[in-house]
Amino acid sequence: MAVSKTFPPDAVREAVAAGAEALGENRAQELREKAASLGRDPGAPWHFVGHLQSNKVRLVVGTAALIHSVDRFGLAEAIARRARALGIRQEVLIQVNVAGEATKEGVEPARAPALASEVSQLDGLVVRGLMTMTPFPGQPDDSRPYFRDLVALGAEVGARIPGATMLSMGMSRDFEVAVEEGATIVRVGEAIFGARRRRSD
C-alpha cells in the first residue's frame, strides 16, 4: 500500500501507474479531498490507516475499501451505522497496540480477540483481520517481536472469525521484516514518495 499523506493527487497517480495495489490515507479530510479529485477507484482501492474519530466516520465509510484503525467498540458502532445508511458492508481491521506504547492508538493485545468478535457481530461491518504500529525501529529487525505477537493474535482471531486473515503491519523502515513474518499488507509512504511534506494547517 502506498501511503500518500500530504502528497498531491499527481503523486498518487504516479504511484498507481507504478503498480501500487492500494492507497492509504491517514486523515479523513485528506481522504475525502483526494477521492473527490481522483475518484473512489483511481486504479487502486483507498484504505484509511489513521486514527479515526467518530465524528469523521462519514468522511471515510463508503470511500475507504478497508479501515485499518478500529480500536474501540463505540467507533465500530458509528462505522456500522454509517455503512447501513449507505447500504454497504464496511471492511475493517482491529488496531492492536502490541507494544503498549502510550503514544500509540490501539486496543491492548489481551483484549483484541474479544473486541474483534464483538465488532464482527455488528450489521454493516466485516472484520478482516488486525493492524499494528510498532515503535520506531533503530534497525528493521527490532520490529520482528512485535510482528510475531500480531501474527499470534491474528491466528486466534482467524480461528474465531472466518475470513479475518489480514495482517497490516510494517512501514517504510521495516516492511521487509514484516513480509517475512507474515504481513498481508505493508503501509509504505516515505520509501515510495520521499520525506513527508509539511502541512500548512
Number of strand elements: 7
Beta fraction: 15-25%
Q: Considering DSSP H and I runs of 4 or more, what fraction of the residues is helical?
A: 25-40%
Model regions low in confidence, pLDDT < 50 over at least 5 residues: none
Count of spatially separate domains:
1
Structural class by helix and strand composition: alpha/beta
Mean pLDDT: 94
Please explain how this structure is put together.
By secondary structure, the protein is of the alpha/beta class. The chain has a single domain (2-193), classed as Alpha-Beta Barrel (TIM Barrel). Helices cover 37% and strands 15% of the residues. The protein is built from eight helices and seven strands. The radius of gyration is 16 Å and the shape is globular. The two termini are 25 Å apart. The mean pLDDT is 94.
Topology diagram in text:
Elements: E1 2-3, H1 9-17, E2 23-25, H2 28-38, E3 46-48, H3 57-60, E4 66-70, H4 73-86, E5 90-96, H5 112-120, E6 125-132, H6 144-160, E7 166-168, H7 175-181, H8 190-193
Parallel strand pairs: 1-2, 2-3, 3-4, 4-5, 5-6, 6-7
Summarize the structure.
With 201 residues, this protein is of the alpha/beta class. It has helices at 9-17, 28-38, 57-60, 73-86, 112-120, 144-160, 175-181, 190-193; strands spanning 2-3, 23-25, 46-48, 66-70, 90-96, 125-132, 166-168. Helix 1 links the parallel strand 1 (2-3) and strand 2.
